[in-house]
Amino acid sequence: MLDANLKTQLKGYLERLTLPVELVASLDDSPKSAELKELLQEIASLSDKVTFAEADEDMRKPSFAIVRPGTDISVRFAGIPMGHEFTSLVLALLQVGGHPSKEAQDTIERVKGLDGDYTFETYFSLSCQNCPDVVQALNLMSVLNPRIRHTAIDGALFQDEVEKRGVMAVPSIFLNSLPFGQGRMSLEQILAKLDTGAGERAAEEIAAKKPYDVLVVGGGPAGAAAAIYAARKGIRTGIAAERFGGQVLDTMGIENFISVSHTEGPKMAAELAAHVKDYEVDVMDLQTATRLIPAATPGGLATVELQNGATLKAKTIVLSPGARWRQMNVPGEAEYRNKGVAYCPHCDGPLFKGKRVAVIGGGNSGVEAAIDLAGLVSHVTLIEFDGQLRADAVLQARLRSLPNATVIV
Ligand SMILES: Cc1cc2nc3c(=O)[nH]c(=O)nc-3n(C[C@H](O)[C@H](O)[C@H](O)COP(=O)(O)OP(=O)(O)OC[C@H]3O[C@@H](n4cnc5c(N)ncnc54)[C@H](O)[C@@H]3O)c2cc1C
């Protein structure tokens, strides 16, 4: 299953293992089980620290656990983690095998200190760009704290389960069998949701902060740029952001950032964070601003209220809250979000395999989505509120040539 190049790379990574790792597979007679067995045996052949075994220990087949023998530490995948999840597989092998994570030490200590039994299940698709972050965060948490268990499940392979649980968008996270989260989540975000005391501690810390010269609300490219420019003047600068990195985190290929021919969203977001950290900018991530109160008198301090109740004051406030998915504002849209209403054809498309779907919007994004989906689903209807599509002619022609696509304007 692995080509020569991938094998060489993986062999190099596996040299970093300091502890033995066992791959324990639960298989049946299906072709997918045979594929997984081949993959795991190939991985085991690349390092004398990795062994392969079969055991009928999990109801999901094919699945496998990456186990640190003699301990409770293990990470489980149901399905074959190739595609975007191959990195998650490699990281899980390394971390179970004793290779340290690059997460901040205080985050690691907070995960280790979580007092409770948490069984997580994450549904992913192999084409989902947002899934690896969630899978990798939960895998690492389960390596750091054996009371946290995690199974990453390829939704396209376990469709009955996906339908029974009403999963229609990935990543979808369940904790102790109940819905926990949907969409990209960082380890910090997951931790903040579990460690409820952390929110109160953060609110107390924020409430004690002195006023800023410039406070930036929003941590996307615009907010990061504003903060860097302010800090370079030597003035007291802070950033409060719901999700540092912004929309850049939701994409992979970026090819129009002039002077950088190709980069990937998460890489660019990490570079934005590193660039901001080069300056004395007080970054307050995972903080949502709920209200802006202008200064009472000219030259006075304006106030930003946060969702956790804390307030921040500054002489100048820069608002750079970016953009969100556009809504149609039709009945049912909010109630069915991620239960049939989806925003990422690449991520969630595989969950609609064989079904009839509608795509709203006849611009380039909508038409590209409809073309991609037509290869997966039984039928696509593209709906455009205007009298004509606005997508490039070549895309429109491609869409209209497909036998299982209909356009309604
Ligand atoms: C899938 C996808 C692919 C893309 N591909 C490209 C591309 O290839 N090339 C390109 O040029 N552009 C691309 N874009 C667009 C690009 O990402 C945006 O134009 C850019 O991120 C906008 O930057 P921004 O800082 O203004 O806002 P955003 O990136 O939206 O950041 C907004 C920030 O504000 C925060 N925020 C929002 N509300 C609050 C609040 N109430 N309190 C606190 N914080 C808040 C958010 O958490 C975030 O940190 C893409 C976007 C997407 C979604």
Describe this structure as you would to a colleague.
- The chain has 409 residues and is of the alpha/beta class.
- It has 3 domains: 4-194, Glutaredoxin, CATH 3.40.30; 198-319, 3-Layer(bba) Sandwich (FAD/NAD(P)-binding domain), CATH 3.50.50.60; 354-408, FAD/NAD(P)-binding domain (3-Layer(bba) Sandwich).
- 32% of the residues lie in helices and 24% in strands.
- The protein has 13 helices and 19 strands.
- The protein has an 8-stranded mixed β-sheet with strand order 2-1-3-4-6-5-7-8, with helices on one face.
- Helix 3 (86-96) packs parallel to helix 5 and helix 12 (364-374) packs parallel to helix 13 (393-400).
- The radius of gyration is 24 Å and the shape is globular.
- The protein starts with a helix and ends with a strand.
- The model has no long low-confidence stretch (mean pLDDT 94).
- Bound molecules: flavin-adenine dinucleotide.
Q: Summarize model confidence as the mean pLDDT.
A: 94
The total tally of domains equals 3
Q: Quick one: how many beta strands?
A: 19
What is the CA-atom radius of gyration, in angstroms? Answer: 24 Å
CATH topology of the largest domain: Glutaredoxin
SSE-based structural type: alpha/beta
- The CA-CA distance between the termini, in Å, is 45 Å
Q: List low-pLDDT spans.
A: none
